[in-house]
Amino acid sequence: MSRGGLVPQARLSGPTPWVIAIMVALTVIAAATGLALRNIANAAALDVAGGVTVQIIEAQAPLRDQQARAAVRALGGVRGVVSARMVPQGEVDDLLAPWLGAAVDQDLVPVPALIDVRLDGAAGPARVAALRAVLRDVAPAARVDAQGGWLAPVFEAMDSLRWLAVAMVALLAVALAAAVLLSTRSALGAHRQTIEIVHNLGGTDGQIARIFQRLIGLDAALGSLVGLGVGLGAVLGLGSRFAALGAGLIIGGVLGPVDWLVLALVPLAAVVLAVLTARLAVLAALRKML
Amino acid sequence: MSEGSGEIARFENVGLRYEQDGEVLSDIGFTLHAGHFYFLTGASGAGKSSLLRMLYLAQRPSRGVISLFGADAITMPRAALPALRRRIGVVYQDYRLVPHLSAFDNVALPLRLAGMPEREVAQPVIDMLEWVGLADRMQARPATLSGGEQQRVAIARAVIGRPDLLVADEPTGNVDPDMAVKLLRLFEALNRLGTTVVVATHDLHLLRKLPESLIMRLDKGRLSDPTGALRYPPRRNLPVGNGA
Question: Is residue A219 within 8 Å of residue A16, measured between CB atoms?
Answer without folding.
Answer: yes
